[in-house]
Structures are given as C-alpha cells and as structure tokens.
Amino acid sequence: MTDDEAVLRCQDGDREAFRHLVEQYKNPLYGTAYLMTGNAAQAEEHVQEAFLLAWRGIKSFQRGRPVKPWLMRILVNAVLAQQRKRSLTTVPLEETLPVGAPSSGADSIEASEDREAVRQALAQLTPEHRQVVVLRYFADLTVPQVARSAGVREGTVKSRLHRALRQMRELLEQSGVMEVAGNGA
Predict the structure, then answer these.
(1) Most buried in the list 8, 15, 62, 95, measured by CB within 10 Å?
(2) Which pLDDT does position 177 carry in this prediction?
(3) Amino acid 19: pLDDT
(4) Cα 65 versus chain centre, distance
(5) What is the set of domains in the chain, with CATH numbers?
(6) Are 67 and 20 in contact (CB under 8 A)?
(7) Which among 55, 64, 74, 53 has a CA at the least distance from the CA of 17?
(8) What integer pLDDT is reported at residue 159 of this predicted model?
C-alpha cells in the first residue's frame, strides 16, 4: 500500500491503514525525537503524541503530498511545545545524551568515540540549529521539507544549517575527531 492509498483509507476511518503509516515512519520519528531531546522515554512519548495528533488531523491532510514531512512537523511541534514548558532548572541536553557502549576492536572503539563526539557537538548547538541538522541529516528530509517541518523559510533553514555545521566542525576539530584542513591542499 502506498502512503497516498493509506491516507485515503485513513480519511475514511481505516485504522489498519494508519498502522501502515505508523510502521513506515515510527523509526525516523523516534530517531528525530531522540536527537532533539536526548532522552529515550521522552522520545517515545513524543512519537506517540505525534501519531495521535496525526490520526486526529488526517482528514485535513492534503493527499498527494509527502507524509513524512507532515509527520515530522507534528513531531517537531510536540517536542518544541514540551521544551517550552520545561523549567529552566532541567538538566542540559549534553548531560542527558547516553554514551554508547563500544564494541570489541580498536575500530569500533574509535567509531564509538567519534559518535560520542558528534553527539556532544550536536548537544552544544542551539535548539533551532540542532532541529534543522537533525531533520536534514538524521531524518533525511530535503531543505524544503525541513522548512515545512520546522515552520520556517527555506533560506532560514539554509542559514541555520550553515551556521550549525560550521559550529559542529569547529567543535569536532577541537575534540580531535576532525583534522583541520591543511594549507589549501
């Protein structure tokens, strides 16, 4: 079943068709929510909330449009609304991101350390910059889809991505994960 067929059936009240959409998009939504919150339990709650809101709003969904950016926008709005509600005394994101347990072998230890450095760099971004990086590179949305999901203009997405990637590059260079480019070589 295609997404468009599933949406049409959902708009007629078919819950099984909605299950198709849930199965199709639960992992990208969870990954996005996790990267935005740094907390597995919160990510699961946000994904559940996003799917509940999507079910409630499916009748107004414009068929023929891609489903993933629509779901991502619902998810992002849910995460941002929750983050606005959180008090200023909460634990910073960089302290909540888990450290992955390395596998055996030097290569996997190095890869685990690289992933941790990327997590830490991502955690140091502003929420707006982290949001566009996560949606573009982890949720694999296009720039126009990120713009729709985040509720901002494409130019804003591009400038935030540029600034965020520059900051992450600097942070990763400082941590020794990325080598500083040589003299124009």
Answers:
(1) 8
(2) 66
(3) 94
(4) 20
(5) 1-96 (1.10.1740.10), 106-185 (1.10.10.10)
(6) no
(7) 55
(8) 94
How is the chain classified by DSSP, letter by letter?
--HHHHHHHHHTT-HHHHHHHHHHHHHHHHHHHHHHHS-HHHHHHHHHHHHHHHHHHGGGS-TTS-HHHHHHHHHHHHHHHHHHHS-TTSPPHHHHSPPPPP-SSHHHHHHHHHHHHHHHHHHTS-HHHHHHHIIIIIS---HHHHHHHHTS-HHHHHHHHHHHHHHHHHHHHHHTSSPPP-S--
Q: Sign (positive/negative) of CA torsion 65, 69, 71, 74? A: negative
One-letter amino acid of 145: Q
- Selection from 111, 138, 108 nearest residue 38 by Cα: 138
Between residues 18 and 180, which one has the greater pLDDT?
Answer: 18
How do residues 103-156 score in pLDDT, each as one tens digit?
444 445 555 666 777 888 888 888 889 888 888 888 888 899 889 888 889 999
Which pLDDT belongs to residue 150? 84
Contact predicate 57/7, CB 8 Å:
no
